[in-house]
Design brief:
The protein is an alpha+beta fold and 487 residues long. The protein is built from 16 helices and 15 strands. α10 runs antiparallel to α11. 37% of the residues are buried. It binds zinc ion (ZN) (4 copies). One zinc ion binds next to loops. One zinc ion (ZN) binds next to loops.
Length: 487
């Protein structure tokens, strides 16, 4: 048995539909060995460890990282000062050794979100942690500020600096977000990244991370997942993957400056009217830019400087506390950047999404509903291309659309719509709800109202109407009916 076979036999005990292989230029990866249909479950992976998230403020369950804020009083306290959502969560993740070490960290303890999971990895005796690849750090780059702090804190308990750094970087590169926390699932961690992936992951009710197919995967295809939001454009996606996961992605989407025809990273050309300037030159140190109509190449430093400024401006607006002022500033931001960006630029969509969130808190008016519907549909349109097949993101977005359309129906009840418009609107609303339930089925972090609302709707419709919607969804996602029931 060679090393790879040994790793495979330890990580994947159940019957499997893939092999673990060496993939040139990408380390190890999973190759499908049988035909996998959209919706098929490829792997259910129990976490090796769970813990609080990385970038979250506030205190969450020190076990699973889940419950927070107002529920803190319901939590199980431990003598070491950590708090857990339940006795069983504490028993699952908080070993005696961890408790002993945490007890000796002087008060006030530094924010557990950045060091606790590393400590958990260090005291764990699970051999699977040893199989993980470390985050590749660019040559010459030293330790980050966070790495320095974790090393400083944990080395005083007898852990070697090198082991702390290794575990910290393994967990950074290989954990999956889980609500407010994150979890390490050693099997799914073997799946490589693509910005246009053929599989997806979600946490089920039993606490496993599920890897399932988005689209048909034929034998010999590599199984891929995305490690970042599909709504992140170049070069932000490039920076994020490089910093948080340590690599430059060379997937088909990243090779294509038009972002598969969505132009979601393009800026308007200053030399020709309809032209859009797209990113090029993936393999060089820095991205270049070129107009797809007239061939104009702006100075890449200037472009990246400008983009960074405009992106940082939006992140700044997100922090604004006063909702009324925030809405106004975001509206101004979108208006101002219409001259700079393509209409589906990812920063415009992101700003639009923020606006939808803020407008949801206002009393519905015709113009408000119109704006919310517009941005929700634009994002859905882009996701249709960039987050292929059974997409989790689309599930959330469709639920938002359902809520907006529901509001629109109630708001227009006084007869402002023609009969056919009203009929189309009701159909759209029904399909959005059932499609979102279908995409988020079994997902423990799906909006809790989905199931209840969908059940109410199904009861209100007749059998034939339900089957019609179900057929439409099955056809759209190429679901093999006998294998997968969607509603
Ligand atoms: Zn918990
Ligand atoms: Zn304890
Ligand atoms: Zn990519
Ligand atoms: Zn041009």
């Amino acid at each position: 048995m060679n090393d790879l076979d040994k790793v495979e036999s330890i990580l994947f005990s159940q019957e499997k539909r893939f092999r673990l292989v060496d993939i040139p230029g990408a380390g190890r990866g999973l190759i499908s060995t049988s035909l996998i249909q959209p919706g098929d479950i490829i792997l259910r992976d129990k976490p090796v460890i769970l813990g609080p998230g990385v970038a979250e403020d506030g205190t969450y369950c020190s076990g699973c990282g889940d419950i927070s804020g107002s529920n803190l009083n319901l939590m199980e306290n431990c003598s070491c000062g950590l708090r857990f959502c339940s006795v069983s969560c504490k028993q699952s993740w908080h070993t005696e050794e961890e408790c002993r070490i945490v007890s000796s960290i002087p008060e006030p303890k530094p924010n557990q979100n950045y060091w606790l999971i590393t400590l958990r990895g260090l005291v764990s005796e699970d051999p699977r942690i040893g199989f993980l690849q470390e985050l590749t750090v660019q040559e010459g780059a030293g330790r980050s500020k966070e790495e320095d702090e974790v090393v400083k804190l944990l080395s005083s308990f007898g852990f070697k600096e090198k082991s702390i750094l290794t575990v910290y970087r393994q967990l950074t590169a290989n954990t999956f977000r889980r609500g407010r926390g994150r979890g390490l699932c050693a099997g799914v961690a073997m799946v490589n990244h693509s910005c246009s992936p053929n599989s997806r992951v979600w946490w089920d009710e039993s606490g496993s991370l599920v890897l399932s197919a988005r689209v048909k995967i034929t034998p010999g295809d590599e199984i891929t997942l995305t490690y970042c939001s599909p709504l992140l454009g170049q070069p932000s996606r490039r920076n994020k993957l490089l910093q948080s996961k340590g690599f430059i992605c060379r997937c088909p989407r990243c090779q294509d400056g038009t972002e598969l025809g969505t132009y979601m990273s393009s800026i308007r050309c200053t030399k020709c009217k309809p032209g859009l300037i797209c990113p090029v030159g993936l393999d060089e140190d820095k991205l270049g830019w070129i107009c797809s109509s007239c061939g104009f190449k702006p100075n890449p430093e200037k472009v990246s400087g400008l983009l960074k400024k405009v992106e940082d401006e939006l992140y700044g607006l997100e922090k604004e506390k006063d909702p009324g002022r925030k809405l106004l500033l975001i509206q101004q931001y979108i208006e101002k950047n219409k001259k700079l960006f393509s209409s589906d630029h990812f920063l415009q969509l992101r700003a639009g999404d923020l606006m939808v969130g803020l407008m949801n808190k206002l009393a519905p008016s015709t113009s408000c509903i119109q704006t919310k519907e517009y941005y929700t549909r634009q994002t859905l349109k882009v996701l249709e291309t960039l987050d292929p097949g059974l997409s989790r993101f689309k599930g959330f977005q469709l639920f938002k659309l359902y809520q907006i359309l529901f509001e629109k129906i109630v708001h227009s009840a006084q007869g402002s719509l023609k009969a056919e418009e009203q009929f189309q609107l009701v159909q759209d609303m029904q399909t959005s709800l059932l499609e979102s339930k279908f995409l988020l089925s079994g997902d423990r972090f799906a909006p809790p109202e989905i199931v209840e609302n969908a059940n109410l709707l199904v009861r209100a419709l007749n059998q034939e109407q339900v089957e019609q919607i179900q057929d439409k969804i099955n056809q759209k996602y190429k679901i093999v009916k006998s294998v997968y029931q969607c509603i």
